[in-house]
Amino acid sequence: MTDMHPAAIAAKRAGRRPAKVDPRTKYRPFAPIDLPDRRWPSQTITAPPTWCSVDLRDGNQALVEPMGTEKKRRLFKTLVDMGFKEIEVGFPAASQT
Questions:
Q1: Domain presence at residue 77
Q2: Close Cβ partners of 20 (under 8 Å, ≥ 6 residues apart)
Q3: What angle do helix axes 69-81 and 6-13 make, rounded to 10 degrees?
Q4: Which domain holds residue 81?
Q5: Which of 17, 21, 78, 88 could be disulfide-bonded to 57 (CB atoms 3.0-4.6 Å)?
C-alpha cells in the first residue's frame, strides 16, 4: 500500500474506489525551449510543488451555508488522509462557524 498515491489511500480507507488515473502519471513534461540568452526556458520542473489546502480558511467563507465544527473536523481529517502536509485554517473567532 506504500506505492499508492495518498488520494488513493484516503479513498480506500473511506470505502470509495480510487480514481482510475494516477495523477503522478497523468501528465508528461514539456520539451525544454532552447534560448541560451535566458535562464528560465531551459529549466524543467522535476518534482511536484508543495500543495497547501486553504479550504478551511478561504473556502468556508464562500459557502452559502458555512461548515460547522464537526464538518470542518471531517474535512481536516480527509485532507490529512489525502496526504496534505500543510493545511491553512481560519480563526475561530472570525465567524459563527
A1: yes
A2: none
A3: 130
A4: 50-97
A5: 88
Half-sphere exposure of 79 (CA within 13 A, CB side): 18
Task: Report the Cα–Cα distance between both ends of the chain, in Å, rounded.
Answer: 37
For 19-72, write each residue's pLDDT tens digit. 666 666 777 777 777 888 887 777 777 777 788 888 888 777 777 888 888 998
Number of structural domains in the chain: 1
Within a domain: residue 54? yes
Give 1's pLDDT tier (boundaries 50, 70, 90).
Answer: very low
Cβ(53)–Cβ(84) below 8 Å: yes
- Residue 89: its H or E element: strand 86-89
Closest by Cα among 30, 57, 61, 56 to 43: 30
